[in-house]
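Hi Y.,

Following your request, here is the sequence exactly as I used it, all 169 residues.
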Amino acid sequence: MSHPPYAADERTTLLAFLDSHRDTLRRKTAGLDAAQLAATLPPSDLTLGGMLKHLAYVEDWWFGVNLLGEDPRAPFDDVDWEADGDWDWHSAAEQTPAELLALLDEFVARSDEAIAATDSLDALAARRHPSTGEGLSLRWILVHLIEEYARHNGHADLIRESIDGSTDA
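Below is the corresponding structure, written out as tokens. Let me know if you'd prefer a different format.
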């Protein structure tokens, strides 16, 4: 993993930080089996496997659904979120580590395509904020995703250390 550049234009900097956080999550989950990806650190019920699936969903939601205005893609397209608002977290235990990583990588690649197809950080997403009606810029979405990954990578640090003592993954 390379460090984001110290002096670059805004777009390059934001994308480098997002990629760095994506890579951090991959490192935090690398080499773990299904049982380890399903392990919790009480009292929380967060799991590393759930984190992989949740962040795949987040990628689809912000870049596919909001930025591009597309419908959610499988497996998120027919989820009954009313029945289980944390379906992405809970259903991850049904998948193998390889399937979870492939899901994240698939949605990261789609997100990267959406970002590349959007010329300006000032470009507004196809969907408006549901409660305020405000436009969401690509810049805002990128910063939000960096925040989302950073927060969950903090969780991943603690969970991974509780699994195998690793603090440098």
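The helical segments are 10-29, 34-37, 48-67, 87-91, 97-116, 138-164.

Thanks again,
Q.
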